Amino acid sequence: MIAAAVLAALAMICAVAAWRLTFARWTWRAPRTAILLWQSLGLTWGLASIGALLAFALDPYRKGVVHGLAEFLLSVEFGARQPYDYLRLAALIAGLSLLAVLVALPLAAGAQTLRARRRHRLLLALVARDEPAVPGVRVVDFPGAAAYCLPGLKSQVVISDGTLHLLSSAELEAVLAHEAAHVRERHDLVLLPFAALRRALPWSKLVRDAQASVELLVEMAADDRARQRCCPRRLATALLRFGTSAALPTPQGALGVSAPSSVMARVDRLVRPEVTLPAAHRFLILAGSVVLAISAPLLWLLPG
Questions:
Q1: What is the pLDDT of residues 188-227, one digit of tens each?
Q2: Residues 263 and 202: beta-carbon distance below 8 Å
Q3: What is the pTM of this model?
Q4: CA angle (194, 195, 199) in 5-degree steps
Q5: 247 near 111, Cβ under 8 Å?
Q6: Which residue, among 95, 96, 99, 109, has the nearest Cα to 199 in the 3D structure?
């Protein structure tokens, strides 16, 4: 029962830490570090929650989650008598069901996203054109403002005619640098597990807030990459122009430059940048994230 209790406590700690992290503002000073912490909390919460249920269910074997589950499967195969009451059986079913859901949903979300991107690429092949003024970028003949990227093996950055007329050359360069950062750092893969968890727990305010926090941090991380190649004020003015124009919604499976809910926070950060988080603090957070991420798998091996 020790392993089950420790895993349950770890899952609770992760949930409380995630709740506190949704209100934190130091994350804006080190978005990449904060994203890694969010990933660690999400992974650990999932493994700890599943592990707590399975550790309780498999406690009669006194071999921990991994070896206890192997023992259970062997006993099922050879028709041995199961040392179970109804409560442990319910915990076993719940743990395996949660494991299946948390594995299947990201896979399903990923497959749906790939299909959406494939359809959108086919559409772009018909309606988009190359523009000498912006080499390597696909331009769509549409008066509204749009700028987004389709990540993947054949990534594409797409803008509209309206964007070309809306932004100055310096602002357009900043927007393209932002989109290039999304493509290079595969921020779509960062967001995928959180979107999948939102589908699994649509009623959870904590999950909604966590997804929104990570989405904002991803945009800030791309802003930081863009500011290394261009003037941050130009990116800020470009965001404001998008925010005040009739900007088009980002297509499914794509990452856009501007989300209305996060524009002002990003503009303030670009115009009045805060002092970055000290290197020692970032190192401690990264080390803590690593320790947290490996704790649950190790506890799966802890005998009951």
A1: 899 999 988 888 888 889 999 999 999 999 999 999 999 8
A2: no
A3: 0.89
A4: 115
A5: no
A6: 109
